[in-house]
Amino acid sequence: MARTLINVPKSAGAGEIVTIKTLISHPMETGFRPGADGRIRPRDIITEFTCLYDGETVFRAELFPATAANPYLTFTLRATRTGPLTFTWRGDNGFTQTETATLTVT
Length: 106
Fold this sequence. Notes:
Distance between the termini: 34 Å
Structural class: mainly beta
Helix content: under 10%
Low-confidence stretches: none
Strand order of the largest sheet: 4-3-6-7
InterPro entries: Ig-like_fold, Ig_E-set, SoxZ, SoxZ_dom
CATH class: Mainly Beta
CATH architecture: Sandwich
Oligomer: single chain
Mean pLDDT: 96
Protein name: Sulfur-oxidizing protein SoxZ
Shape: elongated
Pfam family, one: SoxZ
CATH topology: Immunoglobulin-like
Domain Sulphur oxidation protein SoxZ: 9-101
Order of helices and strands: EEEEEEE
């Protein structure tokens, strides 16, 4: 399980635009670099990130080998109702990680 950091505002007014920030600890090996033994290291990257707000997709990104290690993603959304934010990272070798946070709308 990779370490994640998620920054969601404690609360937001109805209709307010909020910024969501995410970071996941992942080496993002491209599959193009040689290892210490001279052989090419196998590719191991996160290929997709999705954020659901109360079950509805509000942000989705496809990631490629040129993405830096420990991908940091930030995006905005309009706070319409109190609900869960579900963050899912998917990648090579069956990697999947899901985290949740709650956005409280006042």
